[in-house]
Design goal:
The chain has 254 residues and is an alpha/beta fold. It contains eleven helices and ten strands.
């Protein structure tokens, strides 16, 4: 086997941005694998602080990079990571990532779900239909000419990441991942939260998703819910609180 072929083989096994630690370092009895899924208008780098905290506490963290071209593509990207794991996992979604984990949570590796200021659709519901049912404060969403959605950069800081430094929010605004209309309107079919334990975080100052919508979704699913005084990007501005909820899910899902 040539070095080139060996390199290709090794590269094929790398399916996620992961920080590995010895399995024995994880808390006794807790699920050791944590899979994090970002939402619209963001990317996986936003999970760094949460990932660092979880890794320090003995968890193996993987961060999915969904393309946001369709819900089908995003679920496939998540399953690709889940299928490479060596055991059970907690699956975590932020914002539109909640729609993704609601579907990908059917994966046999997933034992519990965490919704971080995230959509949690029931059968037939989509991000768009849920958002329309209880509109958010923000009016920043704009359409592209080719069927995608993005946030007006001039409103990004105030409406998406108000409790982050302005320079950081500006960088995020100019590197945002556009969400396809196809993904935003795709209905849920078999919600995993109906058969697996779920935990949730309400961002009380959220302008991208109505906090009352978050409360309503999490109440009907009987998710164990925590409220954090935060903007939409609670996983970036309050990583300690988010990591704590994820670790609770890891302990409960064993």
């Amino acid at each position: 086997m040539t070095n080139f072929v060996k390199a290709l083989s090794a590269a094929a096994s790398v399916v996620a941005l992961s920080t590995a630690i010895p399995a024995s370092a994880a808390p006794a009895g807790a699920i050791k694998n944590i899979v994090l899924v970002h939402g619209a208008f963001a990317d996986g780098s936003g999970w760094k602080a949460v990932s660092d905290l979880l890794s320090k506490d003995g968890y193996k963290v993987s961060i999915v990079q969904p393309p946001e071209t369709s819900l089908e593509d995003d679920v496939a990207a998540t399953n690709r990571v889940l299928d490479a794991l060596d055991g059970p996992a907690v699956l975590v979604g932020h914002s539109y990532g909640g729609v993704i984990v609601t579907a990908a949570g059917a994966n046999a590796h997933v034992k519990s779900l965490v919704y971080v200021a995230a959509f949690q659709p029931d059968t037939g519901e989509s991000l768009a239909s849920l958002g329309d049912s209880m509109p958010p404060a923000s009016k920043a969403i704009r359409p592209s000419a080719d069927g995608f959605l993005y946030l007006d950069p001039s409103l990004f800081h105030a409406d998406f990441a108000a409790d982050l430094p302005a320079a950081q929010a500006e960088m995020m605004a100019h590197s945002q991942v556009y969400l396809s209309v196809k993904a935003a309107t795709a209905p849920a079919t078999s919600p995993a939260w109906k058969s697996k334990p779920s935990f949730a975080i309400v961002a009380t100052e959220d302008r991208a998703i109505n906090p009352e919508l978050e409360r309503s979704m999490y109440k009907r699913s009987h998710s164990q819910t925590t409220e954090v005084v935060s903007s939409h990007v609670v996983y970036m501005s309050h990583p300690d609180a988010v990591a704590e909820v994820i670790e609770q899910a890891a302990a409960a899902g064993r």
